[in-house]
Design a protein that fits this description.
Elements lengths: L6 E7 L3 H12 L4 E5 L5 H6 L1 H18 L15 H25 L3 E4 L2 E5 L2 E4 L2 E10 L3 E3 L11 E2 L1 H4 L8 E5 L3 H12 L3 E6 L10 H14 L2 E4 L3 E7 L2 E6 L4 E4 L1 E4 L3 E3 L13 E2 L2 E2 L12 E3 L10 H15 L14 E3 L4 E6 L2 H8 L4 E7 L4 H5 L5 E7 L4 E8 L6 H9 L4 H5 L9 H11 L9
Parallel strand pairs: 1-2, 1-6, 2-3, 6-19, 8-15, 9-10, 9-15, 10-11
Antiparallel strand pairs: 4-5, 5-6, 7-16, 12-13, 13-14, 17-18, 20-21, 21-24, 22-23, 23-24
Helix pairs in contact: 1-8, 3-4, 3-6
């Protein structure tokens, strides 16, 4: 397109994980790119999601280590948790990553357009009084912390956005939602000394995980003294100077300093011109084909606004995919079930592929084989004093289709798990690989030895 200062090969609306990845890869492939962002590049993940929550979780781990040092013969005591200091550490981590990302974007000659953008035509995005024209448009406007109908956020009723900026530690907290976000905050606050109760309408905590993992997770939380109420829906909340008062549909009531609403994230698509330009929306999500094309002109969508897993690394990979698609490289489509998932609580949960239940639905009960390897047989897990297991799901006489783990630091093992699932490895393929000793990674090797029919540190 003619370059008049407002015309680009690609205009990306939204500078989060999906948007900035699309911009970086497109620029790398020689495209001219405008990246529109109303807030800060990096989006929710960097500023209000993945990075700050994991910084809090690391501080929480240090608090627990200080309390439990005597267990290892190191007599330490926890003097106090200084939320001012914790928040400064968290903000410093964000600041360094943000500065690095800004440098990357600048080095690729990507024009960052600051302001609220709106799709105004098949090739145009309006930002203030400036009209940007793109031969291709990539929508990556991300998500927001959802609430429930009639449940207003304010005062002592907060979402993760406000929870990340608290400069005080609640004495008690009720968390509405036992998924990833709720479980991670429950873990942090418990480590900081908060009395925590989770309210989850579904039958299990981390309900999207394999049921065996969910049950083990609940046992671990119970052992930590984290309370939870499962299988009953939230009815309402009132608040006063003393705190919040939560009522469930079965009449149970809970009182606490704060209520954290962690019922998932909604797509940020309202008022952005999507429907007016003919895009198909379903409950606010932008519907695309498997190649992330919206069906309108040269408009693509990536990240949390596309139905599926709302994970930063999914959006990031989708951004790369769309840039390569636009450049004519015909990249392979992304298999959603092959995207790794991690809950960074204590204990951690890591999974990739399908659950045992889903595998049986897909292939039939008689065609699925599962194996659980207990971390009790793993030397490094004993050193770390963690409990848990690795569960493998395979097609009978076929490849492994699911890897599910629970225990300290298992999120660091998911890399090998996702390679195994995505490369459709057989147990015999992995069993012959050498895993370093003593590592937790070795537990994966032992699990595959057992699944291949030659268990060593496991009972068959």
């Amino acid at each position: 397109m003619a370059d008049n200062g407002t015309a680009f090969d690609i205009v990306v609306l939204g500078g989060g994980s999906g948007g900035y990845a699309a911009a970086l890869r497109a620029a790398e492939l020689g495209k001219t790119v405008a990246l529109v962002e109303a807030d800060k590049v990096g989006g929710t993940c960097l500023h209000r999601g993945c990075i700050p929550t994991k910084a809090l979780l690391h501080a929480a781990e240090l608090a627990d280590n200080a309390r439990e040092g005597a267990h290892f013969g190191v007599h330490t005591t926890l003097e106090r948790v200084d939320m001012g200091g914790v928040n400064q550490y968290k903000d410093n981590v964000i600041g360094r990553l943000y500065k690095g990302l800004q440098g990357l974007i600048k080095s690729r000659k990507i024009e960052v357009v600051e302001g609220w953008g709106k799709l105004t035509g098949p090739h145009t995005v309006q930002v203030g009084d400036r009209t940007l024209t793109g031969e291709h448009i990539v929508l990556g406007t991300g998500s927001y912390a959802r609430s429930l109908p009639g449940l207003e956020i304010g005062g002592r009723v907060i979402t993760s956005d406000q929870a990340l900026t608290l400069d005080w530690i609640p004495r008690s907290a009720i968390i509405l939602g036992g998924g990833v976000i709720g479980s991670e905050f429950a873990s942090v606050w418990k480590s900081f000394g908060t009395d925590v109760t989770i309210v989850e309408a579904l039958p299990h905590l981390v309900p999207n995980e394999d049921e065996a993992i969910s049950k083990a997770f609940e046992r671990a939380f119970r052992k930590r003294g984290i309370g939870f109420n499962l299988g009953v829906r939230f009815q309402g909340v009132t608040q006063d100077d003393n705190g919040v008062h939560v009522t469930l549909e079965d009449g149970k009531t809970f009182d606490a300093d704060v209520l954290l609403v962690a019922v998932g994230r909604g797509p940020s698509t309202s008022g952005l011109g999507y429907e007016e330009q003919g895009l198909t929306l379903d409950r606010g999500f932008v519907i695309t084909n498997e190649r992330l094309h919206t069906g309108v002109a040269n408009i693509y969508a990536v990240g949390d606004i596309v139905p599926g897993l709302q994970l930063a690394h999914r959006g990031f990979q989708q951004g790369i995919f769309v840039a390569e698609e636009i450049a004519g490289l015909n990249p392979p489509t992304i298999d959603e079930s092959g995207i790794p998932r991690v809950t960074y609580s204590d204990p951690e949960v890591g999974s990739v592929g399908v659950t045992e239940k889903r595998a049986k639905e897909l292939y039939g009960d008689e065609n699925v084989e599962v194996l659980e390897y207990n971390l009790g047989g793993n030397g490094k897990s004993q050193i770390l004093a963690t409990q848990g297991f690795i569960k493998l799901v395979r097609k009978k006489d076929g490849p492994v289709v699911g890897v599910h783990m629970i225990g300290a630091r298992v999120g660091e093992l998911i890399g090998e798990g996702q390679l195994i699932v995505n490369w459709e490895a057989y147990p015999e393929d992995v069993a012959q690989l050498v895993h370093a000793h003593p590592t937790q990674n070795e537990a994966l090797g032992e699990a595959f030895l057992a699944l291949a029919g030659k268990p060593l540190h496991a009972h068959n």
